[in-house]
Amino acid sequence: MPLNVLLAVDRSGWCFHNISGELIKYLSVEHSFTVMPHVRVAREKTDIAVNLWWGSTCRVKSCTRARAHVACIYDGLSWRVSPEAKRQFKLMLLHADVLGVCNNRFMKDLQEIYGDLLPPMMLIEDGVDLELFQLQPQPSDFAVGWTGDSTRMTPGGPRDQKGVQLFRDACKLAGVRGRILDASKGSSWPHKKMPEFYGDCSAIACLGFVEGTPNPLLEGMASGRPILATRSSLSPHGPGLAEDLIVHGETGWVVDRDPTSVANCMAYIAGLSPDQVAKMGQNARKAVAKYTWSEKAKNWRRLFTAALQSGAQRQMGRSIAPLHPAPVEVVVGVTAPNTAREQTVSLEPAPLPISKPRVPNLEHPHVLAISDVPQWAFHTNMADMAEALEDRFKVSHSFVAQWQREGLLPDMDEYDIVFRVYHRWHIDHLLPWNRTVGSLRALWFFPEKPQPPGDREFGLVNRYRAFHVVTWKNYLELKDHCPNVVYLTNPVNMNRFPESTPVEGEVIASWNGNAKHMSAGGRDVKGFYPLILPVVRELEIPFEYVEYNTNRIQPQEMPGFYHKANLAICMSLYEGASNSTAEAMASGQALISTDVGNVREMHEAQVRDFGESGILFVERTKEALAEALLELRQDPGRVKAMGQLNRQEIEKRWSWDVWKDGYAKFLRKAL
Known about the structure:
CATH architecture of the largest domain: 3-Layer(aba) Sandwich
Protein name: Putative glycosyltransferase
GO molecular function, one term: transferase activity
Number of strands: 24
Keywords: Transferase
Number of helices: 22
Pfam families: Glyco_trans_1_4 (PF13692)
CATH class of the largest domain: Alpha Beta
Organism: viral metagenome
């Protein structure tokens, strides 16, 4: 029998109604859907009631007999801007079995604001119909388009929440023609006619104060239109989907939210040739291809399953996180469990979960290493640890991103030690705290409030059986308040970097990382687009880079990447113990760096031991970077010597051979 699902929408013919149509298109084989405005819901009987606007949850629940209730979070304002909004949201949380959240940034924000009050959360990103929204040629007359509901306003939020007045002001300043399709003025077209609107625009402006997954962004990119979007500083975890999808100057632009910045960008686009704009539009369509509804609808199938599980447990007085038996990915020859078991999660603050009594394997303990995503920095660190300690520990791997998207939860009772590699993921309620160790892998515990640790941070650290930090500075700040803290940096696996870079006789620069890493307040952290890229292009420095969102490669390919260059660049605002800089040094590259993380520690150790250093410190400006590059470009022999010093430094003081005993002692503190 198919599951009966009630989809409660705000109004017909607009965003939530369109989402409902896509769910029916892709999930109707196993589900029977009813779509209804939430104000008309009355005495409905269904298996699952889904409130696409979270504010209708309490009313819909009072009018339905449903086994489970889902509340969806599609905006970033309504649940955080005022005490009354938060009060209403907390009331809603008492009635929701699962939250469907449109992006990971909002998940992190919700956890920080509401903590243990939250039911399980699942990711439900929007999709786009690539068959409806086809790649279109550029129009003959240049125009920038805006579409949305100009009257949309959250109490306590800005007046021009969707940015239509900002759009008008910017068009006037730039002297460009703007096309507006305003749903509040009775001009909203049927969804199937929206391609006509995008086809008449050269580029699309998305100027909302804060957005989740805005349809004009996805639909405009699918139609082959570059996107002009604005930043938002509301979320400490970044502004939303625009930053994830837009590559500056290739698929669009992300600028400050003021008329001058938007107008300058509009004028720049207007000055491009039609072929240049069309090429950016082609890039935009390629970038949005992973957001097809055929893929994104699968998240809803998982959401419905999780809701039924959580709803059933709520009726017995408790709620569980979504669970699905599935294999957990592992590396370096270790075996992970292939089944998941129930973990309880209370809606109200409750005592910490207690795992069943177990006898640990003291001779060869089994460690669960929890990272964020496969094949990136944390996972690489844990894979290297597993290799270094394979004669003392068995290590399996699990990824929080898969827990959120797919409900892939490991059975914590299978492990002697649980290693949580980063402290900010929403998983506290799932951890067996009597055998969990943790880590701070950055400079700050809470980058949105960059300040020395206090009582909040001391309490966080002391909750773990042991907790390690990757810089000596962090250790000194914590050691007098946290008896369980230890100093363990991110070592380099020299087995992966057996040889120095062969580049000599010229200077070739390199960088790798996540260029879209944003700090609180929307500040760029890594410095790739605003600092590094403009300078190396202006100076015509040969340059190799690998960027997480655009041309990411696998960890096993990184040694080959480092062998293409001999001078690494780090212009970060802050770091902990950067994998990128340490691996580049291990590969025999010289280093230009801002004074961040443990780079100063490595520099001072070199000077004490060798009398000189392979690291050149610079201020975080384009001028300082340009001066350093010009200086080193004139002396390739010096660059080679600096790289040799750096490789020696990593081998001698920062490799896994040096640190593995410390990690073994740290892990055993959990037993």
